[in-house]
Amino acid sequence: MRVVILEDSVVASRWAANFIAEQIRRKPTSVLGLATGGTPVRCYDQLIQFHKNDQLDFSQIQTFNLDEYLGLPPEDSNSYRRFMQENFFDHVNVVPARTHVPDGMAKDIDSHCQEYERRIKESGGIDLQLLGIGSDGHIAFNEPGSSLASRTRLKSLAMETVQDNARFFGSEEKVPRLAITMGVGTIMESRQCLLLATGANKATAVREAIEGPVTAKVTASALQMHPATIAVLDEAAAAELE
Ligand code: F6R
Q1: 118 CA to centre of ligand 1 in angstroms
Q2: Hey, what CATH topology would domain 7-234 get?
Q3: How is 122-151 classified by DSSP, letter by letter?
Q4: Of 127, 138, 164, 208, which is the active-site residue?
Q5: Set 68, 127, 136, 208: catalytic member
Q6: Which residue ranges of the chain lie beneath pLDDT 50?
Q7: Is there a contact between 36 and 66 (Cβ–Cβ < 8 Å)?
Q8: Residue 194 bridge partners (DSSP)
Q9: Cβ(139) to ligand 1 under 6 A?
Q10: Is 138 noted as a catalytic residue in this protein?
């Protein structure tokens, strides 16, 4: 795994956005895997600036998001679909029908998950997957104990994740306990992964993911086995690396 350490989250986010922009310029029909949460917001801001100032063209890309909370309709202020619209899609020229986020209201969850996998395959596969990392070492919502071969499925959130994400919902009680998430196996099939981690609260998870053993207890550690992963860290998130 290539590790890039930069001074702060602003510079790290800009680096990640530049990397994504390069991918799109090189292959305008790129299939991007996208993440939500606090970490990628600055990166999306920067991509929006590239679109507005430098004509970065998103018109041919396809996107697949990592996850969505179960039971939240797309218009819910906390749904990941809404997050993507507000923080990215609404501000660039991506074609709405080419953006995919799991449906938190799907009636038949198993067949929805299979269909999501099928669509990823049909798109030709993910060229570049943007990832964050949970304080418990998860990627997407693959919580500790998730199989490293897992596919898109329903997953219960670990208590640590519920607590971490309560900041978006106002209270712990309001955080959904279940989510539809790409599996570790799904993520590992991406041609490239870009793990972005910023802030001191990620330092332990980052160390375990990059320098610890490959283990289902820290699903991000599976990325050590991925042939083309770059971890972009700010100094705070990199503080515990040897
Ligand atoms: C979000 C996702 C999660 C987050 C992780 C970090 O789509 O898949 O794995 O990347 O929980 O979240 P933040 O960035 O809010 O610290």
Answers
A1: 24
A2: Rossmann fold (3.40.50)
A3: HTT--SEEEE---TTS-BTTB-TT--TT--
A4: 138
A5: 136
A6: none
A7: yes
A8: 130, 230
A9: yes
A10: yes
207: tokens are 């160390």
Q: What pLDDT does residue 191 have?
A: 98
Reply yes or no on whether 90 is catalytic: no
- Report which of 84, 39, 32, 55 is spatially closest to residue 234, judged by C-alpha positions: 39
- Residues 169, 53: Cα–Cα separation, whole Å: 34
- In whole angstroms, give the CA distance from residue 195 to residue 65: 14
Predicted pLDDT at 75: 98
CB 195 within 8 A of CB 231: yes
* Beta-strand runs (E) in the chain: 2-6, 31-34, 62-65, 67-69, 99-100, 128-131, 153-156, 178-181, 192-197, 229-234
**Tokens 């100032």 -> residue:** 53
Q: Tokens 């679109």 — which residue?
A: 51
* Residue 67 falls in the annotated catalytic set: yes
pLDDT at residue number 225: 98
Q: Report whether residue 136 contacts ligand 1, using a CB cutoff of 6 Å.
A: no
This model's pTM is above 0.95: yes
Please say if 136 is a catalytic residue. yes
Give the pLDDT of residue 122.
98
pLDDT given at position 22: 98
Q: Which atom of ligand 1 is nearest to the CA of 139?
A: 9
| Helical (H) or strand (E) element with 17 | helix 9-26
Q: Would the CB of 38 count as within 6 Å of ligand 1?
A: yes
Q: Is the dihedral of CA 88, 193, 138, 106 positive or negative?
A: positive
